[in-house]
Amino acid sequence: MAAVTTDPYTELQLLELSHEWGHGAPSLPGQDDVIMFRAVKFAQHGVMAHRIKTVMHTGTHMNAPIHLVQRASDLSEIPVERFFGNGVVLNIPKKSYEVITAKDLESASPDVQQGDVVIIVSGWHHKYSDAIEYFGESPGLSKCAAQWLVKKDCRFVGVDMPQVDHPLATSLGPHRGGPLMKRLANDYTKATGLDPTKEHPEWNIAHKTLLSAGIPTVEQVGGDVDLLAGKRATFAATPWKFKHGDACPVRLVAMMDPSGKCRIDAGN
């Protein structure tokens, strides 16, 4: 299948920015795997229907503010204009255990405009798997990076990493409920020579900063996002209208209009 799909009528170019989801989708350490089976089968009934048990934070998914902020908006309460809009894919390559800072965001191109959707590509989506490296060694946003994005009033922020924060700032490391990856803190210190409690003293601080500002987040961006690195596009990611919902899988899509001919229908 072609990486870029061109609509024959509008000439819009569409790109997939989601990982495939299903049985075997990587799940965060400490969370249950996706469980799914065919409750109704073609051979027996002539139709097919699945039954699924899952944590909503698997695969490419959106987080609502209520995920980390008590009494904040759930998925059903996020204004719909947050799910669609123009924005940018920032190419900010990072290695194991590195941090994405406000300076990285400021230096990336093209420039982030007020109200943009911002997708941050560290290259970590290439490691998407059930692996210690993918979850435990991933980069993450610093507090100052999150504050920088809040000042830009982003519609939503997407990252190609398993979580918004550095893993040592989450319960994967020595924070509340953790460490869910018991060797992580020692491995981090051996690899970097740094003390995780000094480098990452606040729990989920980058993610909480974004969600406290009412900015939804999309984690585990993937698909053909490399084709958009350093470019502007229009994005759509619509979650379920889920009352009390903290998160759910989404299909993240980018749209471009090289011809400049496409216009939204007037609805008459």
From TrEMBL:
It comes from the Bacteria. GO terms for biological process: L-tryptophan catabolic process to kynurenine. One of its GO terms (molecular function) is arylformamidase activity. Pfam families: Cyclase. InterPro entries: KFase/CYL, KFase_sf. This is Cyclase family protein.
